[in-house]
Design goal:
The chain has 3 helices and 8 strands, in the order H-H-E-E-E-E-E-E-E-E-H. A 5-stranded mixed beta sheet has the order 1-8-7-6-5. A 3-stranded antiparallel beta sheet has the order 2-3-4, with no helix packed on it. By secondary structure, the protein is of the alpha+beta class.
Length: 165
């Protein structure tokens, strides 16, 4: 059990902690009020001393010449194209590209009076057949032309490719 002296000491410590807590709370409330008053005063000063900002004049449109007019008409024509076309595509780019590695032309069979046939990957195809999202456009003795949209893919016989290397 605690002696009377220890009880008095614990009581003094408890009162001291309580007074410290009350002082802390009162100081924080006072500080918040002072901070709010200071922010309001600062906002008033800034508003009173800030120069009036004139509204910006409307920008003038640049004067266009014949070359600009032609370019504008070209852009308007591109905008009117159907959704299937890319308005950012350069019309000067080639529409034929090298074949991707997805398709491998393994053989071609061309005989008179019979439709030309080709073996692509593991499929036997004729002109007009679909291969994934491509259409077989032409079968020639050493290559096959596939078409997807406006893009053509040229598949060369594997033997021809190896001779070039």
């Amino acid at each position: 059990m605690a002696s009377p002296k220890e009880k008095v000491q614990l009581g003094v410590i408890g009162v001291g902690v309580a007074l410290l807590g009350i002082t802390f709370v009162l100081n924080s409330l006072t500080a918040r009020k002072k901070q709010a008053a200071w922010k309001a005063k600062l906002a008033q000063e800034v508003q009173a001393t800030a120069p009036a900002v004139p509204s910006a004049p409307e920008p003038e449109l640049p004067v266009t010449g014949p070359a600009d007019e032609a370019r504008i008409q070209q852009q308007i024509a591109v905008l009117k194209e159907p959704w299937g076309k890319d308005p950012f595509r350069d019309e000067g780019l080639a529409k034929t590209v090298a074949a991707p590695s997805v398709f491998k032309l393994k053989g071609v069979s061309i005989a008179q009076g019979k439709p030309a046939m080709a073996v692509i990957n593991e499929s036997i195809v004729q002109e007009g057949d679909r291969l994934d999202d491509h259409i077989v456009k032409r079968i020639e003795p050493t290559q096959v032309v596939l078409q997807r949209g406006e893009q053509e893919l040229i598949l060369k016989l594997e033997e021809e490719e190896e001779k070039k290397k």
